[in-house]
Amino acid sequence: MRYNYRSHMAEVQRLRGLLVSIIWIVVVIAGVVITFAGYLFLFQSNYVYYPDRTLSADPGDIGLSFENVSFETTDRIMLSGWFIPCDNVRGFILFCHGNAGNISHRLDSIQIFHRLRLGVFIFDYRGFGESDGKPSEVGTYRDVEAAWKYLVEGCHVNQSRIIIFGRSLGGAVAAWQAHNDTPGALILESTFTSTPDIGAKYYPFLPVRLLSRFKYDTAAYLKGVKCPVLIVHSPNDEMMPFSHGQQLFESAKEPKEFLEISGSHNEGFITSGRQYEEGLNAFISEYFPPNGPN
Fold it and tell me: How many Å apart are CA 185 and CA 77, to the nearest integer?
């Protein structure tokens, strides 16, 4: 067979051009990934917090009396909230809401707690609703600490009569407070194990655990909680996997209970209706007798 130099060189040139094209594609993809990772690192708070500054309603709109409350954190940020009293109260809910909206979007929950004969103190984190400042992880911890002190020291509520309740991101905030001070009980609803864990779910192609500036390590905080714990989660939760609820239950110490509900992340407690309310009532009744100290 006769050697064809020109054909050989043409093939070499073709392969060389193909290699250059592949290298450029890899470089472009790597550049896009690095740029996106950098953006996520610098602007992570935009993906963690979705505050709404406007209050759209208040407990008076659902027939409940309430008090507007203002209180200050240790770093001098003024926060706002509502205290909703209840007749024949058997305990008090310290409500840590999720990462979006503000307290005015939690009236359904406030109504449920009122039916369960629980006083409610719900507050907005810094940067949410009428609270001053800008949200941050350390900031939310200072916020719940200030809310706890307002209830215990300002309102003279026995801490054994306080249930710290946290939904979604608020669950991490609630668990942090419960591992620092011991309430009567802790309820975590639709909560994740940590932000790096949930971030890895949404961005599996990125080194999220290296990039994450937020921890919100709910599972770690739970290990230090000494009060009764109720974990509430739905297998249909499209945002926080059911497995996170199961892992949180494993992290918690006894006594602990698990309430499985149905429905989506934001509407599970409404969709589950009577099942949800009766589940909460059963847990609360076990640890909060009707005639306990206020």
Answer: 27
What is 255-269 written as a DSSP string?
SEEEEE--S-TTTHH
Hey, where are the domains in the chain?
A: 1-42, 51-287
- How far is 41 from 46, CA to CA, in rounded Å? 10
pLDDT of residue 210: 74
Round the average pLDDT of the chain to a whole number and report it: 89
Phi-psi region of 101 (alpha: psi -120 to 50; beta: other; left: phi over 0): left
Q: Are 101 and 49 in contact (CB under 8 A)?
A: no
Between CA 49 and CA 167, with CA 190 as vertex, the angle to 5 degrees is: 55
> Looking at residue 147, what is its pLDDT?
98
Q: Is 19 helix (H, G, I), strand (E, B) or coil?
A: helix
What is the pTM assigned to this prediction?
Answer: 0.86
Cis peptide before 207 (omega within 30 of 0): no
CB atoms within 10 A of CB 17: 10
pLDDT at 2 over 70: no
Q: Specify the pLDDT at position 260.
A: 98
- Is the CB of residue 44 less than 8 Å from the CB of residue 212? yes
For 115-169, what is each residue's pLDDT tens digit?
999 999 999 999 999 999 999 999 999 999 999 999 999 999 999 999 999 999 9
Spatial separation of the C-alpha atoms in residues 15 and 10, rounded to whole Å: 9
The 10 Å Cβ neighbour count of residue 213 is 14
Is the CATH code 3.30.250.10 the one for domain 51-287?
A: no
Calculate what percentage of the chain has a pLDDT beyond 70.
84
Residue 131, CB-side half-sphere exposure with 13 Å CA sphere: 33
